[in-house]
Design goal:
Length: 443
Amino acid sequence: MKMKNSARREPICKVALAGLSICAAQVTSAADVTIATFNSPAMLELKKLSASFENANRDIKLNWVILEENVLRQRATTDITTNSGQFDVVAIGTYETPLWGKRGWLMPMTNLPVDYDLDDVVKTARDGLSYDGQLYALPFYVESSMTFYRKDLFQAAGLNMPDQPTYEQIKQFAVTLTDKAKGQYGICLRGKAGWGENMAYVSTVVNTYGGRWFDENWKAQVDTPEWHKAISFYADLLKNEGPPGASSNGFNENLTLMSSGKCAMWIDSTAAAGTLYNKSQSKVADKIGFAAAPVAVTPKGSHWLWSWSLAIPKTSKSQDAAKKFVTWATSKQYTEMVGKDEGWGSVPPGRKSTFARPEYRQAAPFGEFVLRAIESADPNDSSLRKVPYSGIQFVGIPEFPSFGTVVGQAIAGVVAGQTSVDAALKAGNAAADRAVKQAGYQK
């Protein structure tokens, strides 16, 4: 395989007379590996610890491109669809991996080191990153969604969070706990537009309200009573009980709000738990409680399944070096490093052995719950009525980002007070119908 090379000077020393060493510089060849990822705490920790990988692999030089999540998706997609070969490793998820693997855009993850122990990786993650039985990315961490809440605020108000809350209960709690004069908001939710930002969460709300993106004949179902109920509920809740500027808040912004004590509740990725329970990163680490993602009409599709993973584009010119890095970054050994450096509650979960570790179980009281949520999320049965697609918080077809982004922008406009629910869903329905009709899904 071809490798991108960069010059690296290594000292070469010869022993001269009288035992003196004479050193000269020799130029050696190093493989450049450019990694495109996003600015989450877990990914920033990976960048930090990667110095030890470079020290152990002097022939490999890592270059990092760290982007905001929406921008990463755009850049990675452009890079791989245009065969530009800019990136050797890309952080992608359960949506892109099987589609890109099917098209031959990714290197298959075969011939892994014996000690990698692929069977230890949670099966739902492996399945979600495979196409036709072939794995095309290695999971960095696996996540579902859950409800985080402030135990101290609930106790002070005489409220009890059930193990499985309903959305009506969530609304009542949010109304009770909102105190805008104190800068305390009853709930924080994703509002930032993007098929993987607000729509990742909003799709689960739609699912549990009985909605779906398409019927069995690929007719768009965005402009339906179920979507209207779900979006009206979500937008009203966020506008009335959420923080100002909610339409600009994605995962990272809400993580900051929750960890600084501004939110009484937050429904989002299970991956946030590691930060929220970390006393060095969260002001409310000892006050956080957790429960299942809320339900409305049906439990189906109420919590998502996602895996942020590392994949190698076929266009990479440093495939061997890239594979060496990816296997290291997703290995048991890396998990150990994070446990020692950041604490066991912050390790990226994705391996069965991690969830079973006594150190993890002690530091992460949410661990067993998270594993159950991950294993119970079913991308092939995520809606009340039958659908022709797979995916919980996305539609598993190549066209989804195009119309998913349009719907996300329209719904962000509702939250910002710029448009009505009716207008947003009509526009979203037209975009979804147009995309699948042009792609030939509708008969």
